[in-house]
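Course exercise 7: structure representation. Students receive a sequence record and must write out the corresponding structure in token form. The form below is the worked example handed out in class, using DUF2252 domain-containing protein (472 residues). Read each field label carefully; the graders check that inputs and outputs are placed in the correct fields and that the protein name is recorded exactly as given.

STUDENT ID: A-19
EXERCISE PROTEIN: DUF2252 domain-containing protein
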Amino acid sequence: MQEYDRPSDPRLLPRKSREDLGRSARSSRPLEDHAALGPGERDPIAILEHQALSRVAGLVGLRYARMATSPFAFYRGAAAIMAGDLRELPDSGVQTQLCGDAHLSNVGFYASPERALVIDLNDFDETAPGPFEWDVKRMAASFEIAARARGFDDRDRSAIVERVGRAYAAAMDTAVRTPALELFTARLDIDTVMADIGSELPEKASERVEESVTKTYRRDSRQAADKLAVRDDDGVLRFKSDPPLLTPLRELAEREGMSFETALARLHDVLEQYRATLPPERRRLLERYRMVDAAMKVVGVGSVGTRAWVVLLQGDAKRDVLVLQAKEAQRSVIEPPDGSSAYAHQGQRVVRGQRIMQSLGDILLGWTTGEGFDGRMRDLYLRQFRDWKGSAEPERMEPATMRMYAQYCGIVLARAHARGGDPATISGYLGGGKTFAHALVGFAAAYADRTEADHAALLSAIASGRLEAATR
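STUDENT ANSWER:
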């Protein structure tokens, strides 16, 4: 009987063969080599200046001001700088879907479709395929930089970073032996986490976590509307004016010589295109709401200067409000600047990457294209603005708390990579994880040094007048 000839696609090989592929990749990129960092002969300020060319000119100074506050704030806004640094290094050759901006503040809480609070990656602006270790290295370096900001000693910092690598490797090994359906639906919910940390963290740390979780449950569209909007004389909700942080559509339209009704109609067309990217049952949900206002809102650190909108929708009941966020999606910094993008539409890239990497995602996640006041068409993606979204507070963590958080971040990242790539190949490459974790400690320390130097370069550029920083 003739044996069935398997296709050459490595994903269709038996698990052991795929693990062997991972092990063989070590010959060209040994695990110990991941501690190395290239010479870094580049101008970080020039990279920021290049990014500024495609951003709202009036907001670029605010971005610089936010990045200038600390090395960690700089790091959060420097995904493009680090992507260039990582591209200069030999890589493992083991690919997966990357978050592209995997740092500790981009792991947080959000509501699952069945209204459970889960912990997962929650920012995918830079998602794209790439070598798995790029995400792990960015995550590890974020912990080193955050631990330095807290004044932790060398031993504590090394233990925290090593925990990221060991947790990642262990979770990837588990993923290899997990049935595919279970892997793609596995979630890390807050109840499980609270049960785990209750006996391991200091009492005050546990109380802070509980306090943060309680606040997160209150972060929804109604809370956003209460904070960002007021009712006009006709009882209709309208966004407040607080430029440049929050600039209502009415003001933007007036500035551009356009009527509010025309601007609102144009935005309505954008939302109709967005609805078409949702499943039919989600479109039915949106039909219960009517759009009443929109505003441009500054968010985050790395995103400052890109076009980001909040859209206010009203249901039948007075308290039935929905706030959506529409964010401009530019080309991922992970993708080679001289190559083609995996997607023609960058909003679709973000949505597809998020759906691949998250087990449970926003039920209203979709993409669209919108025409700006300058007449240019831009790719956008939309999601709920606040749906129990929250993040960790590294500036308040003790060493034990940060070690525990590093553990969960390693698990979350490994599960996302296992969904976006082949866990057997990644696990085969990593082996037990000890050597890789040690290498991460060296890399994270070296990259933290580089980030501190880059941050100092930013401060110098602002002081010399090369860059202009503005607090508002």
